[in-house]
Amino acid sequence: MSSHLQFLRNLQQLLDEGVFVATYKHALLQSLADLAIEREPDEDGSMRLPVVTIAEKFIHYYWRQSAPYRGPDGVLRQNAGGQAAIINYVADARAEYNNLVELQHDAGEWQGLTRRVAQVIRTMPLWKLQIVAGSSNEFLYRRSEYENASIRLLPGAVRSFRDLYVIVTNFVRGAWVSQIQSIGFNRNILGDAAALPEFLFGAERSSLDRYKSILREYQRSRCFYCDKSARSGELDHFIPWSRYPVDLGHNFVFAHAGCNRDKRDFLADVDHLAKWNEENLGESGELTDAFVDAGLVQDRVRSKHVAIWAYEQGEASEAHVWMHGHDPRRLRAEWRDILIA
Ligand SMILES: [Zn+2]
Fold first, then answer.
1. Does the global pTM surpass 0.90?
2. CA distance 332 to 234
3. 100: exposed, middle or buried (C-beta count within 10 Å: 0-12, 13-18, 19+)?
């Protein structure tokens, strides 16, 4: 446990005393945290991460953040000097494509953009992130282990990111919001500060409506949890948003407002998990195709890894899980047979 405490101290030091004036350090830390739970660690607990994979994460974050916050010239600065280069790259792409999925399907453009962003990451935050007060503290990855354009996230960092994901995410996002608020240029754009976190990290309303109509149709207007007919219903994050605040298609189910409310921030019990695994993560590809056609972000494999991570964490913390019509009870080990068969 003390290694986790040391990890948090190191992280706080990076955020408080690091040499960065741009939000790249926030984007980099959040990317590493996300990837640590979205991928499977190697045998020795470490994780190889190509810089282009980190670049894709940057593009996802900055895609929504490079939209104007208010008024046509209201793009927020993410750097104390001029605008951060990656924001300009992403804003240029935004002007050409309706959404990120459309851009990703234009393979040449997408690869060009990820390469340009990866180049900035290599020259800017990657080797500066872990420098504090002039000396380097390589607790996340080591310069000496950089090879084939990839870093190796150290086993201790992978473990801490996985065990402390929610804490780290709240920590980094809070610092990110403060950084943007502290940039003088943004003061004229930011009126209602309360709306800023939602703008930076929240879900886009229009996407949620499209996810919802796809899931409703896929489930034939029945509630995922009680299986009764649901004319109107809500979109529920199967792995709760409070644990993993990222919208990924396969993680959504359609459910009664009441069932959704009742589940709250619990993980679902193994019966629901088995159904979700079969219907949403199955190989048929029907759901995947529907998301792709609608230009919605999805990644079946990533969703599976996130679920494995969430149930591993649940098991380790002896979490209670929710099942429709029952009182919450201890998570049973069967989840492993379902997700890691
Ligand atoms: Zn229901």
1. no
2. 27
3. buried
Please give the pLDDT value at position 283. Answer: 83
Write out pLDDT tens, residues 166-224: 999 999 999 999 899 888 889 888 876 668 888 888 877 778 999 999 999 999 999 99
Rounded to an integer, what distance in angstroms lies between the CA atom of residue 45 and that of residue 158? 7
Q: Is the pLDDT of residue 2 over 90?
A: no
How remote is the CA of residue 213 from the centroid of ligand 1, in Å?
A: 16
Q: What's the CA-to-centroid distance between 298 and ligand 1, angstroms?
A: 24
State which amino acid sits at residue 142: R
Residues with CB under 5 A from ligand 1 (ion): 223, 225-226, 256, 259
241 Cα to the center of ligand 1, angstroms: 19
* Structure-block tokens of residue 109: 């453009």
Instruction: Please name every residue paired with 132 in a beta bridge, in sequence order, or none if there are none.
Output: 18, 135
The CA 334 to ligand 1 mean position distance, Å, reads 24
Tally Cβ neighbours within 10 Å of residue 268.
25
Find the 25 Cα to ligand 1 centroid distance in Å: 42
Q: Compute, in angstroms, the gap from residue 250 CA to the centroid of ligand 1.
A: 19
Distance, in Å, from the CA atom of 273 to the CA atom of 277, rounded to the nearest integer, reads: 6
Give whole-number Cα distances, 169 to 21, 176, 201, 242, 319, in Å.
20, 10, 11, 10, 20
pLDDT, position 108: 96
Round the average pLDDT of the chain to a whole number and report it.
93
Listed range (9-18, 155-164, 256-265) with the worst mean pLDDT: 9-18
Q: How far is the CA of 198 from the centre of ligand 1 (A)?
A: 28
Residue 20 has pLDDT above 80, yes or no: no
> How far is ligand 1, taken at its centre, from the CA of residue 1, in Å?
40
Q: Separation of 222 CA from ligand 1 center, angstroms?
A: 8
